[in-house]
Amino acid sequence: MIIPVRCLTCGFIVADKYKPFLDGIEKGEKSAKELLDDLGLYKVCCRRMIIAQVDLVDIILPYSKD
Question: pTM, whole model, 2 decimals?
Fold first, then answer.
């Protein structure tokens, strides 16, 4: 999966925050809003970059040639 390194709008680095966000969501201890706040993603554009990511590897993999 390709995660954008920087926010396309403001240029803030967001790639290093994607994995901790996914781990926090899987644990279910906090809401998405609280996790994004803890990671320092306060702007709407940066939050969009993390929330809008879709893991396409599982969808595309069956169509790959061996």
Answer: 0.81
